[in-house]
Amino acid sequence: MKLSLDEQLQQLRSKATELVLREDWQEYINLYSHLISLCRHHLLSGSDDVASGSLQRTLCLAHSNRAEALFRTRDLSGALHDCDSALDLDPAHVKSLLCKTRVLLDLHRYSPASDCLKLALAGQTTGTAAAEAARELLERCRKLEAQSRSGKLDISDWVLNGFSEKCPDLAEYVGPVEIRRSDNGGRGLFATKSLEAGTPLVVTRAVAIERGILPESGDVHGESARMVMWKDFVDMILKIADKCSRTLYLIYQLSTGTEQSEPQIPDAGLFKPDAADELFDRESKELDIDRILKILDVNCLTEEEFSSKIQGKQNNYYGVGLWLLPSFVNHSCAPNARRLHIGDRVVIHASRDVKAGEEITYAYFDVLSPLDNRRKMAKRWGFECGCERCKFEVASCFSQEMRDLEMAMKGGANIEGVVVRLEEGLRKWMVKRKEKGFLRASLWQAYSSVYESERLMRRCGRRIPAAAAVAESGLLDSEKHFAFYGAYHSNPTNVFIHALFVWPIFYTSLILFHFTTPLLNLPSWLGGDVLVLNLGFVFAAIFGLFYVFMDRKAGSLAAVLCILCWIGSAHLARRLGFSLAWKVC
Ligand SMILES: C[S@@+](CC[C@H](N)C(=O)[O-])C[C@H]1O[C@@H](n2cnc3c(N)ncnc32)[C@H](O)[C@@H]1O
Questions:
Q1: Where, by residue number, does the polypeptide cross the bilayer (predicted)?
Q2: Element (H, E) at 254
């Protein structure tokens, strides 16, 4: 017996209820796809206006229900498309508006999510539980939108509560960075403006992440457990890339490790959630499993040990994930940024002041270790490190002495002797402050053993600097402490050389200028007058003092002030009617 349309729809709806209870989302989606085509077919052929009105409502609800199911299976673009189809039929359909808000939030499009939610709220009676929930969601949208603009995050509550609460809600953020060609041949992430230590650079969610507790180290099952986790992780990535062409396109921008000499430089803006969809249609959407495997090999990150520790996870905890824009950050053994894992998000922030145009780098592995160890770790990552610190340590004329000290440190005996010998070496080799930091970081294990033991500290006496001073000169230091004059000032020999040669040359030139300017007949606005030149001399001396004792910024500011005062005082002298007070010629 042939069923009427109403009966068919009724049957499909009760089947759908069963599937919801079983949480069989795939079957639920298939069922609603069938229901949608049934409705569309009757709408096209039908003529009865009343029936067609009710059929449109059914179709709208069907799209809305399928959107919910697609959202649950993480097919966000499919869900968004269904929400839009439902809203085309009924622009005020509250269920579809709420679903669309959630999808947009998951796509990190905070502003359209707020707009959508405002429409949903307009159609709801105030005071109801649903309206209250929508209002809370709107508050969340607003918070995330503000955060995605400024990048400023507040995780203090979470930290103060011992990381026990739910991870804080963090918005996607791409700060003042761009992708450019790096000195190591590939691409890298660069600062587009000067940044202070602590500035957030990128906050982004993982494409996928796999976490687990591995068996105790030494257990034969450890490696196979890791392999199983890796396989699950790869499957997850392939599934997501297959579903979302945008994600696949972005994954294809990452390095396979086999690029030609002229790598493609993608725009960092592509990695922003609001990048226009048209930008993603340029490349093949075919899933190339070999290529993706190579990309995962080069770009996957394990969750940083530090993050897992502070989050109270177990020692053999293991987490691996893929984060898109952070994949362009190269390694350096003297990094200027750090990454912190919060939930499935990674936060990259400047760990010291960064100059505009400087490459952003973080450490892929523990850099508080000797050159040879670091080289081995880089080899495991598949590259030879070409960072400034490695280049310095390889090229230095005292590399053999450093190697001997490393061997002595690894031997473990007379650990304080290693530290004292390095401190003596640093004085003898006359290395700059920044490079002292590099070398101390290489023997950090010896330094930390000494600083942790009162007995060893007593034995070393004043032959080694205080722990705080060493940490200050190390890799955690801020760029301004590395500034040339800061480094100069920290070294008594350099200050002595400076006092003996550089400053006398500066003062002699000023004195010569002082005696010869009256002969040159300088224009009055330059103060071609000895009295005023004397003032210039005093100001220049102040500028010099600033330059040496403060930092470069203060020195430059003092220089500008000196010149202004010089010219200003020339005018003042003329206005007050001073004539040449003391002319030599
Ligand atoms: C996650 S990717 C970094 C971005 C990559 N440079 C690109 O062009 O997309 C990691 C790869 O970058 C290269 N790399 C990263 N840091 C490096 C360094 N300090 N020295 C040399 N190569 C480095 C290595 O080839 C490494 O396998």
A1: 495-513, 525-548, 554-573
A2: none
Q: Please determine, looking at this structure, whether the domain spanning 173-364 carries the CATH number 2.170.270.10.
A: yes
Domain boundaries of the chain, sorted by first residue: 5-150, 173-364, 388-479, 492-575
Contacts of 243 (CB under 8 A, 6+ apart): 74, 75, 77, 78
The pLDDT score that the predictor gives to residue 90 is: 92
Ligand 1 centroid to Cα of residue 205, in Å, is 21
Mean pLDDT across the chain: 81
The answer to whether 207 and 324 are in contact (CB under 8 A) is: yes
Domain 5-150 identical in fold to domain 173-364: no
Q: Would the pLDDT of 26 be above 90?
A: yes
Output the CA 62–ligand 1 centroid distance in Å.
48
Compute the 3-state secondary structure of the chain and give helix, strand, coil in percent, each to the nearest 5: 60, 10, 30
DSSP annotation string for 56-114 = HHHHHHHHHHHHHHHHHTT-HHHHHHHHHHHHHH-TT-HHHHHHHHHHHHHTT-HHHHH
- State how far the alpha carbon of 531 is from the alpha carbons of 352, 475, 562, 577, 581, in Å: 45, 49, 15, 12, 6
Please, what's the b/e burial string for 226-248 (b: 16 or more CB within 10 A of its CB; e: otherwise)?
A: eeebeeebbebbbebbebbbbbb
Rounded to the nearest 10 degrees, how much is the dihedral formed by the CA atoms of 454, 455, 456, 459? Answer: 120
CB of 327 shorter than 6 A to ligand 1:
yes
331 within ligand 1 shell (Cβ under 6 A): yes
Q: What is the pLDDT of residues 478-523, one digit of tens each?
A: 333 333 333 444 455 555 555 556 556 666 666 666 555 555 565 6
pLDDT in tens, 250-270: 999 999 988 777 888 999 999
Q: Which of 177, 184, 384 gets mutated to test ligand 1 (max ligand atoms within 8 A of its CB)?
A: 184
Rounded Cα gap, residues 536 and 533, in angstroms: 5
Q: Tell me the β-bridge partners of 174.
A: 202
What is d(CA 245, CA 60) in angstroms, rounded to the nearest whole number?
26
Residue from 410, 404, 402 nearest 439 by CA = 402
Query: Picking from 11-15, 160-164, 548-552, which range would have the lowest pLDDT averaged per residue?
Result: 548-552
| DSSP one-letter code for 284 | -
The residues, any chain, with a CB within 8 Å of residue 331's CB and separated by 6 or more, are 361, 362, 363, 364, 365, 378, 381, 383, 385, 387
Q: Which helix (H) or strand (E) holds 281?
A: none
Superfamily of domain 5-150: Tetratricopeptide repeat domain (1.25.40.10)
The candidate with the shortest Cα–Cα distance to 436, out of 478, 490, 366, 394, is 490
Helix (H) or strand (E) holding 263: none
Positive or negative: CA dihedral 193, 197, 200, 202:
positive
Is any ligand 1 atom within 6 A of the Cβ of residue 565?
no
Q: Which of 383, 384, 391 to mutate to test the pocket of ligand 1 (most atoms within 8 A of CB)?
A: 383
What 8-state DSSP symbol labels residue 271?
G
Nearest to 246 by CA among 275, 221, 213: 275
Token pair belonging to 492? 């008594």
For atom 20 of ligand 1, which residue has the closest CA? 385
β-bridge mates for residue 317, sequence order? 213
How many residues can be counted in the chain?
585
